């Protein structure tokens, strides 16, 4: 392990190390920060049976099929700048309303490593672009050479923070495979935790989101059967340690 203070290396002790590579950590320690995040939310309803097929047990799909399409333009963070877009499905955990992050696409390798290894966030690499047309912002996700997701919102009026969709608690399935055979070495349902810092700006308007498929990635079944409002949010965020809500292996 490298010590920046002394400018030397030393062997990794048995109880040291939590990020790979052990001698030069890929991403910084918690808390990490985000500044000037621009987030678009689109309320939508999907087929509850399709939503249920994307949820790990014991999560139960919301019978209404409520879901959120989301896109983020991150100008500065502990991981560098990047763009991100994905899907959150409303569900319950032992009767508690929660949200499950079933898909998340972004264009920053460091952020992908951190999200998958720490919290089990379903992060995948994709090309993500934003464009503004009058009062419409469009986010487009291209993966495997094809457009996979397109989300757009307007900013028609100022809104309050309480009007924005609340996608907390935010659940993710963390799986790390065994090295000595099939199966998981770690399998946990993890709650991602963060907190807003400083002032923020919110706007409301119209929203639209559509999903497509490639030979490898099938998002088309999650196309909304109904659309709700669109929102825009700009603010800062501090990323915290998560919570292990269920350890599948420890519980047999």
UniProtKB/TrEMBL annotation:
The keyword Lyase applies. It comes from the Bacteria. Keywords: Lyase, Plasmid. One of its GO terms (molecular function) is acetoacetate decarboxylase activity. Its EC number is 4.1.1.4. InterPro entries: Acetoacetate_decarboxylase, ADC_dom_sf. Pfam families: ADC (PF06314). The keyword Zinc does not apply. This is Putative acetoacetate decarboxylase. It comes from Martelella mediterranea DSM 17316. The gene is adc.
């Amino acid at each position: 392990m490298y010590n920046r203070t002394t400018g030397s290396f030393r062997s990794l002790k048995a109880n040291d190390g939590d990020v790979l590579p052990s001698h030069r950590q890929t991403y910084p320690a918690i808390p990490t920060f985000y500044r000037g995040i621009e987030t678009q939310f689109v309320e939508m309803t999907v087929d509850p049976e399709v939503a249920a097929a994307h949820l790990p047990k014991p999560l139960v799909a919301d019978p209404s099929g409520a879901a959120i399409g989301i896109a983020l333009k991150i100008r500065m963070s502990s991981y560098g700048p990047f763009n991100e877009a994905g899907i959150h499905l409303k569900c319950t955990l032992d009767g508690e309303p929660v949200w499950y992050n079933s898909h998340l696409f972004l264009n920053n390798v460091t952020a992908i490593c951190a999200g998958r290894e720490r919290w089990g966030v379903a992060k995948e690499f994709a090309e993500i672009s934003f464009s503004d047309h009058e009062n419409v912002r469009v986010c487009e996700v291209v993966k495997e050479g094809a457009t996979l997701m397109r989300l757009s919102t307007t900013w028609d009026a100022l809104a309050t923070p309480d009007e924005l969709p609340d996608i907390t608690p935010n659940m993710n399935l963390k799986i790390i495979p065994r090295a000595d055979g099939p199966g998981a070495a770690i399998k946990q349902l993890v709650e991602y935790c963060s907190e807003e810092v400083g002032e923020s700006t919110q706007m409301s308007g119209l929203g639209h989101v559509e999903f497509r498929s490639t030979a490898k990635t099938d998002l088309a079944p999650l196309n909304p059967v109904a659309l709700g409002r669109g929102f825009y949010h700009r603010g800062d965020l501090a990323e915290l340690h998560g919570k292990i809500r269920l350890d599948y292996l420890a519980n047999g």
